[in-house]
Amino acid sequence: MSNKGLRKVDILFSQYSVAPYQILKQTMKKNKADVLTEINESGLRGRGGAGFPTGMKWQIMADEKAEEKYIICNADEGEPGTFKDRKLLVEVPRKVISGMAIAAWITNSTKGYIYLRAEYNYLIPALKKELEVFEEYSKQFGLDFPIEIFSGSGAYVCGEETALIESMEGKRGEPRNKPPFPTQEGYLGKPTLVNNVETLASVSMVCRYGSEKYKSLGTDAQRGSKLFSLSGDSPKEGVHEFELGMKVSDFVAEYGDGDTKAIQVGGVAGYCIPRKNFENTIIGEGNTTGGATMIFNSTRSMYNVIHNYLEFFVEESCGQCTPCRVGTQQLLKGIEAVKVGDKPECYLQDLIKLSKTMKITSKCGLGQSVTNSFTSIITNFPEEMIY
Amino acid sequence: MEEVSKIIKEKIKEVGNQRTALLPILQAIMKEQNYVKKEDMVDVAEALDISAADVYGTSSFYSFIETEETGKYLIRICKSITCENKGKKQVLKAIEKELQIDLGETTYDKKFTLKPTNCLGLCDMGPAMLINDEPFTELTTELVSEIICEFRNR
Ligand SMILES: Cc1cc2nc3c(=O)[nH]c(=O)nc-3n(C[C@H](O)[C@H](O)[C@H](O)COP(=O)(O)O)c2cc1C
Ligand code: SF4
User: Fold this and answer.
1) Is the confidence at residue A69, as pLDDT, over 80?
2) What is the CATH code of the structural domain delimited by A302-384?
3) How far is the C-alpha of A221 from the C-alpha of A48, rounded, in Å?
4) Class of the domain covering A22-215
């Protein structure tokens, strides 16, 4: 466990260079292989949840030979409690678009899409304007890479990269089997690179500052800086940027309201950490990559919290596989039955077992991750489930 | 109101007549009339040369594609945990009272529909809601009355 304390940084929202798209211009003067090495060396991992090493994914994509190859910026941001991608798209869209363009240049990709959740449709006019600026400059730099916005239609599971692709193809957003991975067979069967908004913006920053500097931030487990969307019982809600590797207790001391009972890290797909574990839990080691942090103080009922999460999962399960479709419903019914006394206390243990079975047998990350918050809340707050 | 057949034609001109055009077309219809009728689905299916069942299957998957009659202004109030904890219940009650409808219903004059929705990504400014595409944040019971009043007169 490496605790580095709470170290705020200001990288992702730092000011633009004076002339537009200078990072892209400078990067394109270098050798593609060298830039890819930089990204690999930086230790940057995907910020969309799965935490896959970005450089490695780009290498795989670069090695794919095809006439058409696509870059998709995943701006579906549906995880409850997450809003950092929105802030990036509002305040520094140029960094995100630069990241897409650098990806296209390195991997010889032909077209880009920003898959924007329907809830963010109001961002489209400003984004379109920025894309016009990009078009002008990318042409000057000799890069032929048109980018379009594809609007989602309100489905959390479409943030999962293969469901996202299905949805762009005009189908129900049901996750596909992997392999083949999108880099092999993605949108319209062509190699497709899907990256999170923050990952792409971070690539721009790696290119601006170099991998040495970027790598010096964070811990061995998680390199670089990371955005946290903070909401709940905190006087300082909003998006904050830190080096990874701080203790929950340091975080709560700075951002709690003095009465913090629990903190949800990594959104509803992540873990709920109770007060007694604040001291020995490091944010960014095995418990989060998405960065949604919700603080609950002692006036909050953890039964209401898990009930709310489960309703969310029931609704957002695409229904394709039985463990997730039926499991989420049974968990919800189960805790309701315990609450009213229709089932005994020990039934909660059966429900935990069920959630663990869902982890093993569900097809995608949605069904697989329900157990994270479910088990952590039930085991840490059993009395609140009963009384 | 624009004819749906015209919307379909225009969208196809823009994005082609492949299956990939399906969501953009449905979204364009939503924008015009706030829901997609059964007849519209048949038209879309014909235009893209796919089955109407496919169009329905896709439409019904997405919570932002409405398949039942919906008012001119679709209010989607966030029901995720942070907004819930910040007093969404009172705000929702105030809207219901103002519009004289329950959650899930449409006003008699077909001007407003009130629906719950999952996280809008506005948690730091909750309680939050969308009216069509427009976000409204830090809602209070007084504020929602004002907002609805403004929309009534639009
Ligand atoms: C249910 C579910 C929802 C997801 N939602 C998102 C999302 O909103 N945004 C995102 O970037 N990744 C999301 N992901 C992860 C993507 O599948 C994918 O791993 C990611 O976009 C890859 O980008 P990265 O490597 O830059 O993180 C989701 C995954 C699952 C299983
Ligand atoms: S785990 Fe759930 S969301 Fe994922 S494919 Fe299965 S049913 Fe669909």
Assistant:
1) yes
2) 1.20.1440.230
3) 16
4) alpha beta
pLDDT of residue B133: 96
* pLDDT at site A279: 93
Give the start-to-end residue ranges of the domains of chain B: 2-61, 73-152
Q: CB contact, 8 Å: A287 with chain B?
A: no
- How many CB atoms within 10 Å of residue A341? 9
Average pLDDT of chain B is 96
Rounded Cα distance, B140 and B89, in Å: 10
Strands B73-78 and A271-274, bridge-based pairing: unpaired
Q: Exposed, middle or buried, A125 (CB in 10 Å: 0-12/13-18/19+)?
A: exposed
Contact A370, A327 (CB under 8 A): yes
Respond yes or no on whether the N-terminal peptide bond of residue A146 is cis (omega within 30° of 0): no
Calculate mean pLDDT across residues A375-387: 96
The average pLDDT across A172-184 equals 97
Say what the pLDDT of residue A245 is. 82
Contact, A223 vs A215, CB < 8 A? yes
DSSP-derived 3-state class of residue A306: helix
- Domains in chain A: boundaries: 22-215, 302-384
Task: Work out the average pLDDT over A279-290.
Answer: 74
Token pair of A126, please?
Answer: 């400003």
C-alpha distance from residue A17 to each of A22, A23, A26 (Å): 7, 8, 11
Give pLDDT tens digits for B119-130: 999 999 999 999
Q: Which of residues 222-241 of A touch B (CB under 8 A)?
A: 229-233, 237-239
Cβ neighbours for A131, distance < 8 A, ≥ 6 positions apart:
A97, A147, A149
**Domain B73-152, CATH homologous superfamily name and number:** Glutaredoxin (3.40.30.10)
Q: How far is the CA of A376 from the centre of ligand 2 (A)?
A: 21
Work out whether strand B134-136 and strand B129-131 pair parallel, antiparallel, or are unpaired: antiparallel
Facing B121 at nearest CB: one of A83, A230, A318 = A83
ipTM rounded to 2 decimals: 0.97
Quick one: pLDDT band at residue A3, thresholds 50, 70, 90? low
Ligand with smallest separation from the Cα of A267: 1
> Which CA distances in Å does A359 have to A178, A202, A240?
16, 30, 31
The pLDDT score that the predictor gives to residue A289 is 63
User: Ligand 1 within 6 A of A92 CB?
Assistant: no
